[in-house]
Specification:
Distance between the termini: 55 Å
Bound molecules: dinuclear copper ion
Number of strands: 12
CATH superfamily of the largest domain: Cupredoxins -  blue copper proteins
Number of domains: 2
Strand order of the largest sheet: 3-2-1-5-8
CATH topology of the largest domain: Immunoglobulin-like
Amino acid sequence: MVFLVVAAGVIWSVVRFRSRGLSTTEPRQVFGSRKLEILWTVVPLAIVTGLFIVTVRAMVLIDAPQDSDRPSDLVITAHQWWWEARYPNGAVVPWDIHIPAGRRLRARIESADVIHDFWVPDLARKMDAVPGRWGYIWLEADKPGTYAGTCSEFCGAQHAWMRYRVIAESESDFEAWMRYWKPQPNNEDDIPGSPVPLAVRLFADKCSSCHARTATDESSSGKGPSLAHLASRETLGGGIMRNTPENLMLWLTDPQAAKPGNRMPKIPLTDAERTTILGYLESLR
Ligand code: CUA
């Protein structure tokens, strides 16, 4: 619109004031116009002032002052390229972030590597995730529902695939979900006659230095997302693909083909080992 208005004015001036004939005298010159000067100062000033007032009002509405004594209700950590939420009961959840609807949560936003930005347009303002700094936002959903979130600060090759969902549910559903993610012992390998000793051993050998396998597994470095309840997730890799056995196998075979640039190296595995680990991952409901 602006381009069209300006272009039309230029064309009109070129045609209207073009030199006619071979006259050598200059056309009439106009110096200054108080009326115009005032007009083009006051009008933009009024527009900017109006926008400023509307913006400040919206900022106050969506970003109530933080109570710095209040402990955070959940800690959200950004990684290249996935998100992780930690709950007060110790659960570490690397995909959908569940919250109780109608309750205002104080979320602490952190980064494990570079600058990211937490953004769920329907629920809260944006907050940068800056390495070495904590940012706090209020996260609140008035009614139950699924709200899409994404990283909104360019953070590397897979910035676009840093998707997550915030799932707001009733208090009772939320409590049930928290019980599902309750702290679990990490000791199947110690149970005599455990049905999956080989798989568990393989996982411990090949995967566990980066990936946890239960909600509160502290034995892994957490460099990669926790694989707790992996089989019940809908997507893999920050939303880049559906969670199917074929796609999971691709991560085991060639992680860089699954999501180019991600931090997972190719793990040397035989076909039999891959099949065993896949079966184990598919059992993590
Ligand atoms: Cu993380 Cu963009």
